[in-house]
Amino acid sequence: xxxxxxxxxxxxxxxxxxxxxxxxxxxxxxxxxxxxxxxxxxxxxxxxxxxxxxxxxxxxxxxxxxxxxxxxxxxxxxxxxxxxxxxxxxxxxxxxxxxxxxxxxxxxxxxxxxxxxxxxxxxxxxxxxxxxxxxxxxxxxxxxxxxxxxxxxxxxxxxxxxxxxxxxxxxxxxxxxxxxxxxxxxxxxxxxxxxxxxxxxxxxxxxxxxxxxxxxxxxxxxxxxxxxxxxxxxxxxxxxxxxxxxxxxxxxxxxxxxxxxxxxxxxxxxxxxxx
Length: 275
Known about the structure:
alpha/beta
């Protein structure tokens, strides 16, 4: 009897210890600092937020949010390891804990708040109420003044992105074409396969700098952004608090605006030819 009781108590003690160990292992912030590496997921097809430069024969990742990721890692005293992937895979990677943070032009949405931890906002400049719109051929841009003008039109939107929801909710009579990258949408637009591509206004304006045949439609979605957010795995409160501390510092110093302006110049110089 005593032996059985002792074994039971030992089993409970081991289970408790294992539980404590699992809890410690789940503390991402401690793990990041121990290994000296911050792993960041991003979809580098969203200039000037994040994009690629392959002009020198090797891939370099540029963009305002890439600089933000570097700064977060620097302030944590670790190296940044980028994990580029399709946008639809970014959310899955952070939700399942395969990466430490995700920075990829994330807007704060109820769905994302349910599945991941979201940081404080950051943005380059204040909103003018035209945060989300549609790229169309410049010659017909003034023909798209209302949602009804997109009735029966093919509108491309990136899989899993805010724009996909906006098209679904605000352009119900349009035919949505789901794309994996903005570059795919631009190719479809310039070759006549779609009539419009739903984009953040800043992204659209960057493309119009390098594609003179494109322009932003007069119609804009009914959406006003407070900025973008960094995502962490749900429940990683210590990591989220540290990210928020750093973002607050970025906002106070106006660093993101500096990175944004530099990224716009770089994207324009490249002609947005990255893949």
